[in-house]
Amino acid sequence: MALYHSLSLGVHAFGILCLVLAIALNSWSTGTATENDVSGDVRFGLWRACADVSGEYVFSLNPSGSDCRIGHCIENPYLSEDGDKDSHKLCTNSKAIAGLLLISLCFFLMSVKTSNINHARGQTPHYGWSSALMFLSAILILGAWATWVSWQSKVNDDDGSNPNAVVFFGKLNLGAGFAFALLAWICALVLLLIQCMLLREYDAAQVENTMNRGRQSIGQRLTAGSINSTSVDDTPLPEEDSATATQA
Fold it and tell me: Which sequence spans correspond to the domains of the chain?
């Protein structure tokens, strides 16, 4: 039982870690791009990578052709950080996003199963459901980010035949993909608020259970003492006292 409880605590801690990593990876998804001394922001996701220089259009990071399309990982000397033209693999972070998303999904299912097992045993399912909320929040955050950037990539022409296709990238920021990402973030925040309320209710329930056990223990001790004090003394009388009682 102690091992099972420790495992539940470990899964709960891992859920917090996954949520923190999800937020960190989501925030770490931008970089700096330079091309012909023009700087801009790099945006990349699970299936695409592009750079937005002016805020109005997206340029290709590959001078020989367009790599700004679905399914491409880019390693290009035009990508830089702080103005240094070094090669960076945008897919490294994308693979981390995909891996953490799958891990969070697996542990979410395991947390739900753990909650059902605890409930069947008559135990509190708090840690299981709490972990499930953590993992579900991470899934929403990662999934929203991946869907948003992949949705944006669909406005770019896959074969590069449309020279005006890249113009629409910056204009999709307030489109359906952004709306989905914003909705998922809101859902994740709501789940975290529910998590906080569950923690408060669980702590209050634990305090109440402790007080009830204390009152029950005191009541049992008082009842046992009362029974001992009022019990009948069945010890036989001495022989002299018995004879005196007979004469009387």
Answer: 2-30+90-207
